[in-house]
Design brief:
Layout (H helix, E strand, L loop, with lengths): L1 H21 L5 H5 L3 E5 L10 H21 L5 H22 L1 E5 H24 L2 H25 L7
Parallel strand pairs: 1-2
Length: 162
């Protein structure tokens, strides 16, 4: 189960990177040709038009917090949260460097909140469930969701990056 959780963590991290940077597009060269470079360092600027995006950022980062909790047992909460922040900042910085989207501090905040929620959910569930069973549930549910998302992207979702 331990090696499967590490594989799932790696696959989820790659999927998250693909989602945030390329919006799940298979046509990555056309995404790289977009050349939208924007930087927003004012938290929650444009709040009225970006609520759905903010909620989506929280939701997609919750599994990252769960998987960090499964895979980094000996790492304290704040260090795991720092990993979430660093991952989010790195992805936002890549968007800016590659000129493929809007680099926004609000995204970093919402992504971090999602990871935080995932870690807190794990911690809360760990108080009531056996750790081994909880880890097994997270890995099995995560694997099912990952496969479902990939199949959904392959056969249902049509992605256009405009």
């Amino acid at each position: 189960m331990k090696s499967l959780s590490k594989i799932l963590f790696a696959l989820y991290s790659l999927l998250l990177l693909w989602l945030v940077l390329f919006k799940l597009s298979f046509d990555i060269p056309s995404v790289l040709d977009i050349h939208i470079r924007s930087l927003n360092l004012i938290p929650f600027a444009g709040l009225s038009r970006g609520r759905t995006q903010m909620i989506a950022n929280i939701i997609v980062f919750i599994p990252l917090g769960l998987l960090l909790s499964v895979n980094l047992k000996r790492t304290n909460f704040w260090r795991k949260l720092a990993y979430v922040v660093l991952f989010s900042v790195a992805v936002e910085a890549l968007q800016f460097v590659l000129a493929i989207g809007i680099t926004d501090i609000t995204d970093v905040i919402m992504n971090t909140l999602g990871g935080f929620i995932g870690m807190k959910i794990y911690g809360l569930c760990n108080k009531f469930l056996d750790e081994e069973k909880l880890d097994r549930f997270v890995v099995v549910a995560g694997t099912i969701l990952l496969v479902a998302l990939i199949l959904l992207r392959l056969f249902v979702l049509r992605v256009r990056y405009h």
